[in-house]
Amino acid sequence: MFKSPAAIHDITSERHKGSGRPGEALSTAIMAALIAFSIPEGSLVSSIVEFARQANVQVIVAVRPLEGRRAASVYGLIPPQQALDGLLAPSGCKGVIRDNVIRLRCPAPIAIS
Question: What pLDDT shows up at residue 22?
Answer without folding.
Answer: 56
